[in-house]
Amino acid sequence: MGIEVGGLLGLIWLIILVWAIVKVAKSSAGGVAKLLWILALLFFPLVGLIAWLLLGPKG
């Protein structure tokens, strides 16, 4: 049972991460800012997502 729960949580996390990357890509931020946010989300998923939610572009 533990593997199924872990797999489901991993899938949910992947969906949230992809959603955040799409939101960054569609934002009104400049190209360099978008690139830095996407790299932060890819290399530091948890910290990058929290930072983006708190500090990222709102548009």
Count of beta strands: 0
Strand coverage percent: under 5%
Uncertain segments = none
Rg, Å, rounded: 13 Å
H-E string: HHH
Helix percent reads over 70%
**Overall mean confidence score, pLDDT:** 85
Shape: elongated
Main sheet summary: none
Note the quaternary state here. single chain
Structural class: mainly alpha
Count the DSSP helices.
3
Query: Distance between the terminal alpha carbons, to the nearest Å?
Result: 41 Å
How would you describe what is shown here?
Keywords: Cell membrane, Membrane, Transmembrane, Transmembrane helix. Residues 15-57 form the Cardiolipin synthase N-terminal domain. The chain crosses the membrane at residues 6-24, 36-55. Pfam families: PLDc_N (PF13396). With 59 residues, the chain is an all-alpha fold. It has a domain at 24-58. It is built from three helices and no strands. It has helices at residues 2-26, 31-43, 45-55. The longest helix has 25 residues, at 2-26. The mean pLDDT is 85.
